[in-house]
Amino acid sequence: MPTVHSQITRLMRMPLRTAVKKVASKALQEARFAYRQYKISRQPIALTPDLFHSFEPACRFLVDSTRRGSYRETLIAEGLGQGILRDAERICAHVFNLLGSGDIHLGEKLPWNKDFKTGYVWERGYYKRITIVDLDRMADVKVPWELSRFQHAFTLGKAYWLTDDEKYAQEFQAQIEDWIDKNPVEMTVNWTCAMDVAIRATNWIGVVPFFRESPSIPSDFWNRFDAALYLHAWFIRGNLENEGEHTGNHYIANLSGLAALGIYFGDFAVEGTHRQGTPREWLKFAMAELEDEITVQVNPDGTHYEASTSYHRLVTEMLLVTGVWCARNGHPFSKRYQNLLESMHEFMLSIMKPDGLTPLIGDADDGRYVIAARYGRWARDDFRHLLAVAGEFFNRDDFRAAGRESREDALWIAGGYRDIPDRLPNSTASTAFPDGGYYVLRNPHAYCLIRCGELSFHGQGAHSHNDQLSFVLNVNGRDIAVDPGSYVYSADYQARNLFRGTGMHSTLQVGDLEQNEIEERILFRLQEQTFASCEAFTNSFFAGSHRGYAEKAGVVHKRELSLDEACLTIRDTLVPANGRLPLPGEASVSILLAPGATVAGRTDRWIVKAGGCRLNISFEGTGGVELRKGWASAAYGTKAPALILRASMRQGHIITNICWE
């Protein structure tokens, strides 16, 4: 999402002739956009709803409408009904908590084009002329996008089947009609990102089985609904997010949405409107592209190449739901696709902490595809809902065991779940994922994840942080050292840079230098300078290094971590690269403690208490230790105060001992 400032900066770096051509091209493009806006304002893009009068979806949905009674019985037996109804009542009352907003009543009509956290409204206009990011405005475009994804509609459907109360069907209808009225095609902020168009389309389709037979919804509503969906497909097909050197989660979303739309419309095609293909062509194209794209974006070890555990979860969810949906309709993906998808779940299982949660390494924006369970209550660092679904799709008991607490997701997405008699033992084996840059040391008492690897998009760093050789530590099921998370993106660029900066992570920093240079107002670029590499890895030992300070300070950072039954020992060393070692005190090692942890200590020995766990932290080779204030973000838009232990390095090396009782 380039800003005006970044665009001007790039122009100033160009030769004069190139810059003039760029400006002229931009002016011509703006003239075309202005004409397009004028044309659409005079004659909106639309399909006559009557064209869909004869259409009846013949596909198999994720949800089977013939099993309405059995779904209800299962939900009641599992004690899930009351939670679903509470969530649905909040949705009907238009009370939402999105992206850290806290509970907010959004009024009688939902503000589809408003950042209700700041009050900023994006006015109607041609989508390519809308400024979605202005770093000086502090508004967050993700807020209207998130609401307009309609991921809450699934909960309305579940409540309807639980109660047979038509108010839920009527609320669904009212919201859809209001959104269509307030968002003419190509004319609001909710058409500026094809990814969100695709996610919205998938969620609209996903709830059709709940409401299609509702006596309170007239048939002409469904004609208008289907016409709007068809236009969603047109838009996605004409605005694929596959330009540039690398594709990412946006393109996976585009393709997943097209696949869902192709399945939904099947052999039905509106005559004379084939400029963006037919539904069968959408499905064929999407599946072929996904077959290729999964090999581009997923590393051989099952990690996603955006170097973010949160985006790994999102991409996995899109690929899994699409795989299930296509297979159910007689369009299975190849064995190669399924093997890579299975390995993505194996990665999630392997990096899961003993408490069942997963560290959010790199960027995290609460992104989901279809929220089938716990809407408004799902934990951003809990990936087990995918393992529950994958357990059924791949028929794996280890996935089933890990996802046991999230079986409702398997009920809706996989069609049900198979009970397994006993919990399988948690693995205490250490695991390495060198392609993704994640290393996990484990024993029966402790879990330690180390980040050491390539930045996202093969070094462009779009969703990466300056976290090389940083670690996360969990002892006896309690978080001790944590990753700071992301907090926000464009709503506060200074906060974004703080949270992705070196100083917020549990690693070594030379002075105030960043491992990889941060360009203050370019929020999704972090050009590779670290070139981190693992040098040794066993079940209890990791050694690695990075070159982020080689050119800036003439040193290479080397880190060794040894894990035994009662202690994690960390040895940090600075090795001359092409200059001298930093002077004493110029380099420091930080440990970001979990929110709520308390610290007491003196000079080089500290006592940390976190969640009932007591640890002793000592430093060797330090010139002094200070306690700083920091932050940790567990979800987008939220942050909690956290303490940072920061020890200065005296003579080019420092040893940190973290021991527990």
From TrEMBL:
Compartment(s): Periplasm
Domain named Heparinase II/III-like C-terminal: residues: 428-645
A Pfam family matched in the record: Hepar_II_III_C
Keyword Calcium: no
GO molecular function, one term: lyase activity
Domain Heparin-sulfate lyase N-terminal: start-end pairs: 139-378
Chief site of localization: periplasm
Domain of life: Bacteria
Keywords from the UniProt entry: Lyase, Periplasm, Signal
SUPFAM superfamilies associated with the record: Chondroitin AC/alginate lyase
InterPro entries: Chondroitin_lyas, Hepar_II_III_C, Hepar_II_III_N
UniProt xrefs under PANTHER family: HEPARIN-SULFATE LYASE
Protein name: Alginate lyase family protein
Organism: Paenibacillus chibensis
